[in-house]
Amino acid sequence: MDGKILETVVRDSRRDVLVRVARAFDSKNFPEAIEAAAKQMEAEWRARPCHGRVRDRDGVAVCREKVLAALGFAVEEDDGTATLASFAKRALERKSPEAYPLTVFGHSCDRCPDGEMTVTAVCRNCLAKPCKQACHFGAIAPGDDKMEIDREKCKRCNLCAKACPYGAIARACVPCESACPTGAIAKDSAGRTCIDFDRCISCGKCIGACPFGAIYVKSQLIDVLRKMKEGRDVIAMPAPAFAGQFSESQGKVQAALRNVGFRQICEVAIGAEKTARVEASDFHEHLGSGQTFMTTSCCAAYNEFVAKHLPEIQPYVSQAKTPLYYTAEMLRSEQPNAVLVFFSPCFAKFREVHQNPHVDYVLSFEDVMALLEARNVDVSTCAEDEAGRRAAREAREFSLSGGVSRCVQAVLGEDSANLHPVIVDGLNEENIKMLRECAKTG
Predict the structure, then answer these.
(1) CB 201 within 8 A of CB 181
(2) What is the distance between the alpha carbons of residues 113 and 106, in angstroms, rounded to a whole number?
(3) Nearest 5°: phi and psi at 339?
(4) CA-to-CA distance for 430 and 143, rounded, in angstroms?
(5) How does pLDDT run along the chain (442 residues), one tens digit per residue?
(6) 84: phi then psi, degrees, rounded to nearest 5
(7) What is the spatial distance between Cα 138 and Cα 130, in angstroms, rounded to a whole number?
(8) Which of 133, 156, 280, 384 could serve as a FRET partner for 114 with CA atoms 20 to 30 Å apart?
């Protein structure tokens, strides 16, 4: 399935639920409105045309799981006995979000075949039988019409598939497992996906990989709306990429955010200048101590990866904090009682926010878009608002590939001749291997 199509379909589904939950919050009776919203979703599910295996699922349970995640709860902790109204009440009483924001929908998870090797109908049962010759475990042998694999003996080494001249042997892919760079995803006895948070680096690849949208981020939207309702000064801190979600001007976007309840707007890119200065200083120190390379510290998933899986590269990582950290530090010093809310395009930032003493909550772009829709705020019709704190254009380039190194080069000026950027495009098997080698050899 095309990645963009998958992302759009799943994202639209999540956004629809978030809009319903936000509108329920704005009603006279939030718990009752949540129950009504869930029943409406169930009715719409039953009215859908048949879509093969999806139709066979328990649609009521799927709707319940989506509402629970939108309310900020892990569906794994739900035994089905409590009402959604009771969960809505608990959401209003919650003191702080949980440390790990991912949850897996048991009724949406497809329980994919666990990487099994399968001989397809393309097999010719040929004379040479290279697949049999390639197998070191005696797991493949001739059947009546095609070769057959003994599941007990098969080690899923993939050698038979590589040897077949017809490409007749396939390995079943588990999308979330294949996407995870750290082996943090496995299946329980029922075949449902489970996440090992001791290994998880919060990169979010599993979220985008699942075609059923079974891996969700527990929303903090209700927590933020509750603070607004209490009359607190809630400050929006949009990531640099947020502006790219709109064709309208920054002034109109800021006005829209004020219209849904944010008292102030402060771009996170404001802290990028300090990050670049500290990284440039660190680079000088690394070179001065005889090291030949340094990695940036701006990616939350990379920092988590280093801490959990590659501590030997830590001496080569810049000690600079992220633009989010420096921006929040500045705002917290100026307004100690304000509620700081980060708008994040990246799932890894949920973990960073949890570990950051200056930031209170994080909303995904889906959360924010859903809030605008729920409160009927059309950005294109908003008046220009120039009161927010804005960053320079160069600072916003932190969100682009190579943007961090370009900013550091600009700070170094003439000294940048010693800086030769290497762009590492994501944490995958190949790049992790390269990083291990760098840590080993220096």
Answers:
(1) yes
(2) 15
(3) -105, 115
(4) 38
(5) 344 444 567 788 889 999 999 999 999 999 999 999 999 998 888 777 655 455 545 778 889 999 999 999 999 889 889 999 999 999 999 998 888 889 999 888 877 877 788 999 999 999 999 999 999 999 999 998 899 999 899 988 889 999 999 999 998 888 898 899 999 998 887 888 899 999 999 999 999 888 888 999 999 999 999 999 999 999 999 998 888 888 888 899 999 999 999 999 998 988 888 888 898 888 888 888 888 889 888 888 999 999 999 999 999 999 999 999 999 999 999 999 999 999 998 888 998 999 899 999 999 999 999 999 999 999 999 998 876 666 666 666 676 677 777 777 777 777 777 788 888 888 888 999 999 999 888 7
(6) -65, -30
(7) 13
(8) 133
Rounded to the nearest 5 percent, the helix, strand and coil shares of the chain are 50, 10, 40
Report which residue type is found at 69.
A
- Answer positive or negative: Cα dihedral of 101, 107, 110, 116: positive
Show the tokens assigned to 401.
Answer: 């590939």
- Token pair of 412, please? 């170094």
- How far from chain centre, in Å, is Cα 384? 32
List phi, psi (to 5°) of 436: -60, -40
Residue pair 33/23 in contact by the 8 Å Cβ criterion? yes
Rounded Cα distance, 95 and 429, in Å? 39
Alpha carbon distance 114, 46 (integer Å): 30
Give the C-alpha separation, 424 to 434, whole Å. 9
